[in-house]
Specification:
Structural class: mainly alpha
Helix content: over 70%
InterPro entries: DOCK, TPR_DOCK
GO molecular function, one term: guanyl-nucleotide exchange factor activity
Radius of gyration: 18 Å
Pfam family, one: TPR_DOCK
Distance between the termini: 43 Å
Protein name: DOCK1 protein
Shape: globular
């Protein structure tokens, strides 16, 4: 909780003194995002790994601090305005890590950041190829590391499709991208499940699907 307060003080200062065009400090903002995501993903805050009694005790006393800092990260991202493009693709991995935390409200609040990144790159270069490549690479790594689940896949699909379909220029390419990532996620989750299967044919079939 002490660290959370300190990070929020840091965020206030960034917004007040280091956001406008003349004083923008890329490294400071980068440090903030990496620090906040590291705080959110630390082991001692992953409540689903605790017993129900311990989880209830922590929630009762402190609330879910991951949700608090996650909403703050989201707001800080949107505050960046025209500076956002400077954080693509570097911030794709950390934001992905955050959205994969198994907390539904946090996921719903932060998955839309991906659409914002797509939009941002599209306005700058008329495509979102850099973002797409980065999220596919990082997703592979994260799912292999044990993160991601069926609920995440469903939310990712639903939230991003809704956003893409409302956008004049991203409707078609956005939908193609979302379907591609969801299909990849399906294959990666299958592969992760079957990795310990005794049946070599099943493992081989899953590997072929991923490839």
């Amino acid at each position: 909780r002490v660290f959370l307060r300190a990070i929020n003080q840091y965020a206030d200062m960034l917004n007040k003194k280091f956001l406008d065009q003349a004083n923008f400090e890329l490294q400071l903002w980068n440090n903030y995002f990496h620090l906040a995501v590291a705080f959110l993903t630390q082991e001692s805050l992953q409540l689903e790994n605790f017993s129900s009694a311990k989880r209830a005790k922590i929630l009762n006393k402190y609330g879910d601090m991951r949700r608090q800092i996650g909403f703050e990260i989201r707001d800080m991202w949107y505050n960046l305005g025209q500076h956002k493009i400077k954080f693509i693709p570097e911030m794709v991995g950390p934001i992905l890590e955050m959205t994969l935390i198994p907390e539904t409200e946090l996921r719903k609040a932060t998955i839309p950041i991906f659409f914002d990144m797509m939009q941002c790159e599209f306005h700058s270069t008329r495509s979102f190829q850099v973002f797409e490549n980065e999220i596919i690479t990082k997703l592979d790594h994260e799912v292999e590391g044990g993160r991601g689940d069926e609920q995440y896949k469903v939310l990712f699909d639903k939230i991003l499709l809704e956003h893409c379909r409302k956008h004049k220029y991203l409707a078609k390419s956005g939908e193609t991208f979302v379907k591609l990532v969801v299909r990849l996620m399906e294959r990666l989750l299958d592969y992760r499940t079957i990795m310990h299967d005794e049946n070599k044919e099943n493992r081989m079939s899953c590997t072929v699907n991923v490839l």
